[in-house]
Amino acid sequence: MLAYYKRVSVRVCGKLIAPFSKSFAAKKRFLREAQIEATSDEWAAIAVFSSLQMLAVSAALAVWLYAAHIIDLVSFVYFVFFMPAAAFSSVFLSVYYYPSQKAKSIAKSIELDLPFALSQMSAIASAGVSVEYMFELVAGFREYRAMSKQAQIIVRAVKELGMSSSKAIEHLGQLTPSKQFREVLSGISGTVEKGGNLSKYLSEMADKLLFDYRNRRDEYQKTLSVFTDVYLVLSIAGPFLMLFVLSSLLIAGSTLPSGAGEVFGLPIEFLIGAVMPAFIIVSNLAFLLVLHITQPGV
Question: How many angstroms separate the CA atoms of 33 and 98, rounded?
Answer without folding.
Answer: 12
